[in-house]
Amino acid sequence: MVRILLTYLIPFLLPVAVWFAWHKFFAKPPAPGEVTGAYPHQAPWHWLGLAGLLLMAATLGTLSMFSGGHPGEVYHPPEIIDGKIVPGRHVPAKRL
Predict the structure, then answer these.
(1) In this structure, is residue 53 part of a structural domain?
(2) Residues near 87 by Cβ (< 8 Å), separated by ≥ 6?
(3) Is residue 67 part of a domain?
(4) Number of domain units in the chain
(5) pLDDT, tens digit, for every residue of 15-64?
(6) What distance in Å separates the CA atoms of residue 47 and residue 40, rounded to the nearest whole number?
(7) What is the span of the domain harbouring residue 7?
(8) What would the pLDDT profile of 66-84 be if each residue is shown by its tens digit?
(9) Is 13 exposed, middle or buried, given 0-12, 13-18 or 19+ CB atoms closer than 10 A?
(10) Are 74 and 93 in contact (CB under 8 A)?
(11) By the 8 A CB rule, do 11 and 54 touch?
(12) Between residues 34 and 94, which one has the greater pLDDT?
C-alpha cells in the first residue's frame, strides 16, 4: 500500500496540492466588491492532470532505472521452504 501511495498517488496529486496551497497562501485577494467563483472551479485541471501524469511517469522511470539487481544477476522469486517464506532475491548468474 505504501509503495502504491509513493509511486502513483503522491506524484499524481502533488501538482494539485501545490496549486491549492499557492492559491490559498499567495494569491492576490479579490478587489472590494469583486465577485469571484469558488476557486476549485478556476483551477487549470487539464494542466494539473498533465503535470501529475508527467511527474508520475518520471517517478516510475526513475524507479525502473535505479532499482532492482545488477547486470548479470538472476532474480529468484519468493518461495516457501520448510514452511517459512524466503523473500525474493538477486543472485549472481552461474557461468557456463
Answers:
(1) yes
(2) 78
(3) yes
(4) 1
(5) 999 998 988 888 777 677 776 656 677 788 999 999 999 999 999 999 88
(6) 14
(7) 2-27+43-92
(8) 887 888 888 889 999 999 9
(9) middle
(10) yes
(11) no
(12) 94
What is the DSSP pairing of strand 79-81 with strand 84-86? antiparallel
C-alpha cell at 56: 508520475
Residue type at 17 in one-letter notation = A
Residue type present at position 40? P
> How does residue 96 score in pLDDT terms, banded at 50, 70 and 90?
very low
Residues in CB range of 74: below 8 A, 6 or more apart: 90, 91, 92, 93
Which residue is listed with cell 502513483?
8
For 67, other C-beta atoms within 10 Å of its C-beta total 7
Go through the chain and tell me how many residues it has. 96
Nearest Cα to Cα of residue 53 among 14, 89, 80, 79: 14
Domain contains 32: no
